[in-house]
Amino acid sequence: MAKLKTAIVLGATCAGCDVAILDLNEKIFEVDDLCEFVFWPTAMDFKIDDLLALEDGEVDIGIYHGAIRTSEDLEMAEILRKKAKVVVAFGACANFGGIPSLDNLPYDQSLFDLVYEQVPSMDNPQGTVPLEIIELKSGDELTLPKMLKDAGALNSVIDVDYYVPGCPPMVPLIEKVVDVLKKFSETGTLPPKGTVIAGEGTLCEECGREKPEQISYHAFFSPQETKKIDPDKCLIPQGIICMGPATRSGCGALCTKMNVGCRGCMGPTVKVKDHGLKMISALTSLLEVDTEEGMTEEQLEKIVQRIPDPLGTFYRFTYGSSLISKLHSDKEDK
Ligand code: SF4
Ligand code: SF4
Ligand code: SF4
Fold first, then answer.
1. 178 Cβ inside 6 Å of ligand 1
2. Which of 22, 59, 207, 275 could hold 268 in an S-S bridge, CB 3.0 to 4.6 Å?
3. How confident is the model at residue 272 (pLDDT cuts 50, 70, 90)?
4. Which range is least confidently modeled, 160-164, 190-194, 288-292?
5. CATH code for the structural domain at 4-99+149-187
6. What percentage of the chain carries pLDDT values higher than 70?
7. Rounded distance between C-alpha atoms, residue 239 and residue 43, angstroms
């Protein structure tokens, strides 16, 4: 049986998605039996010319991880789409824009100065900052990729066939991908286009913690501030923010099992249009529902102000595909 020609292309990525593939342990031998890697720069010394040298449509499976952040990410995504019969968005960054897309927020120069000059760990006496064009000693110029106006998901720039969410995708999900590839190699059949290789329901359904009939909370805490977390009861009434009600299942509730609120790396369920808005709406409707009447606006606001970094909390992985990111971008264009 001929091996599937496979290309793994990197966008704005931390390469944790590559490490997750290697975490397959002995199943990695099945990958080796199934796939001939024609491009995977993290694993071998491939250059862009190796990908360009392939015929259009010659790659059977193209996997892309990382967000679309620079002109180079965009170029690589477009090349992959030309070369690959099937394109898979792999990981939260490729699925939703991920952490790189938090950069779409309207930061001003002060953040740039903070990062390159003021943070205590920065040792930069010459005030060196990133440049778009670097002059080399030879007199030549090296042009760096341009930052795009906004970072986004892979499907904001090319057509995507399948989605594997998670930051990074968990081993059981990658094992499912290997099984899909095996079936494809043996029978030539693939799941319907657009399939998300993950669960269908919400994380709450697989979490297993007991939810009271009426959820209400009175304050927010970080897990380290909470004296004792009940390991069997839902985290929200215990004052710990958990994105579970709006998040897609499939990770095995890895974080809530460890008494940590879900941060939403699997992205929204199919019924949720905007991950963060859904959670903000859910949490604000549960705030002090049992004692709300006796409380002043100021008291309620004080509780809400305890949420650290609200955008990072509610949109950690999905800002790039959120409605507010789009609204902000449209407004800037006008
Ligand atoms: S999804 Fe997570 S692990 Fe994968 S590239 Fe993005 S940040 Fe890294
Ligand atoms: S909100 Fe979080 S802790 Fe509560 S049931 Fe859902 S996933 Fe579990
Ligand atoms: S519990 Fe939430 S943040 Fe943790 S792995 Fe699952 S989806 Fe991701």
1. no
2. 275
3. very high
4. 288-292
5. 3.40.50.700
6. 96
7. 43
Position 293 confidence tier, pLDDT thresholds 50, 70, 90: low
Residue 277 has pLDDT above 70, yes or no: yes
Reported pTM: 0.91
Whole-number Å distance, alpha carbon 256 to ligand 2 midpoint, is 7
Joined tokens for residue 109:
């120069």
**If DSSP codes are grouped into helix, strand and coil, which group holds residue 63?**
strand
DSSP codes joined into one string, 73-138: HHHHHHHHHHHEEEEEEESHHHHH-TGGGGGGS---HHHHHIIIIISTT---TT-----SEEE-TT
The residue whose CB lies within 8 Å of the most ligand 2 atoms, and thus the one to mutate among 216, 235, 260, is: 235
Asked if omega into 120 is within 30° of 0 (cis), the reply is: no
Q: Where are the domains of the chain?
A: 4-99+149-187, 106-147, 203-333
Tell me the ligand closest to 174's alpha carbon. 1
Tokens representing 248? 């897609």
Provide the sign of the torsion angle of the four alpha carbons 232, 236, 240, 243, taken in this order.
positive
Protein residues whose CB sits closer than 6 Å to any atom of ligand 3:
203, 247, 251, 253-256, 262-266
**Alpha-carbon distance values, 300 to 218, 243, 307 (Å):** 9, 21, 12
Residue 142 has pLDDT above 90, yes or no: no
Residue matched to tokens 């905007």: 274
Q: Tell me if 204 sits within 8 A of 262, measured CB to CB.
A: no
**Residue of 9, 10, 13 best suited for mutating to test ligand 1, as the one with most atoms within 8 Å of CB:** 13
For residue 207, which ligand has an atom nearest its CA? 2
